Amino acid sequence: MKKKILLVDDANMVLKIEQLMLRESGYELLTARNGAEAVETARDARPDLIVLDVVMPEMDGIEACRRIRSMPETARTPIIMVSTRFEKINIEAGLAAGCNEYMTKPFLGPELVEKLKSYLDEE
Amino acid sequence: MSRDHDITPRDAATSGAETLPEASPSKTRLQEIVERLETLERQNAALKSLCLAAHQLHESLRHDSVVATIHEIIANLVGSEEFAIYEVARDGSTLQLVASMGIDQARFALRRLNEGLIGTAVGAGSAFPSGDFPHQAALADERELTACIPLILDEIPIGAIAIFRLLPQRTPHLTEFDRDLFEVLARHGAAALFASRASARLDESGACACRADGLGVLDAGA
After folding, report:
1. What is the pTM of this model?
2. ipTM of the complex, rounded to two decimals
3. Which of B52, B50, B201, B186 is nearest to B127 (CA)?
């Protein structure tokens, strides 16, 4: 069965780039445009991994990460946070909320693909 | 169990083997192949990003969508949170700020064509910095300008993108990918902005009332 990845970003461009980079990797890709949508999709679809933007409208990635972690069905789902926010305080907030990794933008596809594989292929 | 891969050149010489490859050159070759593959992967990713950026710029005729796409490209692909997007005003001699991030909007609201780095980039149709950029002194508030991309369509100035500081976590200098992206923005951004303006004017005149039904501008003269 294909592994499911939930991609969360309010920037259409970023979502499309992530989809384009991951299309050939054989994963099933789901998308969400804000934190609230991400929590809902994570609960319903139970993805194997979540790529979560930090700065988003309605609910930001930090809050979404906390909520995803608090749900038993997604408590152990790997979460990779991606953001243009590079400051130590933001990285610490992401890790405190429960993300497994914190990547800073901009990045080209290979870095992200490698990171995802390191989580998904180890099982 | 065969351990041929562990045989050193000295072992090979003493055992009479003549064609056994040396261990270190083989490693070097393998390393070269891995590095080449990584380079190709990065080039492939860069090409995909460039194609997607160009495609996205033409996805909508709505002016706010085109500006938002330019905004997303600079913020997420270039990696800057201090930039300005200008359009040439109807008078043809000034640039008006239409979107920005991380800068003082009032201070950067207007630029005159052929003045300062931004105005000169548009007036001369040359990106800053580039080999053919004319000698021009920066205005006081342009000293932190990293790049300025004039948006020109068929030699008609449409606008400009001024990028001030780049995000500190990225390469501090402009890369080949940045320059390719600027080329995409210069050409496709200009065309997309022009098309969105033309569309808005048609809408204003009522000539394109049927567009929502998919009949398009072909009905404009009907």
Report:
1. 0.81
2. 0.83
3. B186
